[in-house]
Specification:
The protein is an alpha+beta fold and about 300 residues long. The protein has ten helices and ten strands.
């Protein structure tokens, strides 16, 4: 289904003869586009995943970060909407390509964590003056929006039923997360546009130089949320306790924050919030082929110990 949409988009952009290679279909469908002299990244966005204005804002953010000197995927065409074989329409965007490979979390070591933390600080510094304007916006990431039924993260009836057995955990995590967000602001970490999904899979490396990709979940939130996401996905590493300190210390140095036990404790709380949010995502995407029939078990496993 996504390939037909990708081919239609290439025709609109005037590069219909380019070769397509599917790289990932876990969320959006991601293709490498190879023309006679250049490579690109084509994203076919999952139907009804994000409104067009969110995608357009993401592309505007990438242009802003590129102008600030960061090597990020650059938008090469305006986002377009094309028909898919199943009768739905799909948003498509074309981005610049750069070579690099991700480093799996278990393979990270101190220098890698340090570079990742420094890069995160640079991204957030450059994004501080990126203004959301009417008609172009992104979701909020705070204690209310992450867990509420009155926001874009609301679940339908079946999704609510999947998390209902764990209501006490979600309520406790929401209360503690609200305190952490408040504490972070008192430490001088003000909400801004953030990456939203800063994890090892979304960093490509050329030797020891990291390049950030996949800004699809960029949002208005506390900058510590990005560090919490990195910590969460580094947990499989046997050197986790060491790596999270190296990453956070480099991030603080790069972004101008004061490292403190209170800051580290608030980030740790947001790791817990990120786990709970991932369970809500599973409930809301329970029909995804990778989750079908397993959503309840996955949620229970992730919440075990919280």
């Amino acid at each position: 289904m996504s390939e037909a949409a990708a081919q239609s988009a290439l025709a609109v952009w005037g590069i219909a003869d380019a070769a397509l290679t599917l790289l990932s279909d876990a969320n959006n469908a991601i293709y490498r586009v190879q023309s006679s002299d250049e490579a690109y990244v084509l994203r076919v966005h999952r139907p009804q995943n994000k409104p067009r204005r969110w995608v357009e804002t993401e592309l505007r953010l990438l242009t802003h970060l590129s102008a600030a000197g960061l090597t990020v995927p650059r938008p090469l065409m305006d986002v377009i909407e094309v028909a898919s074989e199943d009768g739905t329409t799909r948003l498509c965007s074309l981005l610049s390509w750069f070579d690099g490979k991700s480093k799996p979390a278990p393979d990270w070591y101190a220098l890698i964590a340090t570079h990742a933390g420094t890069l995160l600080g640079r991204i957030q510094m450059a994004a501080r003056d990126f203004a959301l304007i009417p008609g172009l916006d992104r979701p909020r990431l705070d204690a209310e929006t992450l867990f509420s039924q009155s926001t874009q993260y609301a679940l339908d009836e079946e999704g609510q039923a999947l998390i209902a057995p764990h209501a006490e955990i979600f309520q406790r995590v929401q209360t503690q997360s609200a305190a952490a967000f408040d504490g972070l602001e008192k430490l001088g970490l003000a909400p801004q546009v953030i990456h939203g999904d800063y994890r090892p899979d979304n960093l490509l490396w050329n030797r020891l130089t990291p390049f950030p990709v996949d800004f699809d979940d960029c949002a208005w939130g506390n900058p510590a949320y990005d560090m919490a996401t990195l910590w969460l996905f580094l947990r499989p590493n046997p050197r986790y306790e060491q790596l999270k300190v190296y990453a956070a210390r480099a991030w603080c140095d790069s972004a101008g924050y004061e490292e403190s036990p209170a800051l580290m404790a608030h980030i740790e709380m947001l790791v817990t919030a990120r786990i709970a949010l991932s369970c809500r995502w599973v409930a809301g995407n329970r029909t995804h082929p990778a989750l079908a029939g397993r959503a309840a078990d996955i949620i229970a496993e992730r919440l075990r110990g919280l």
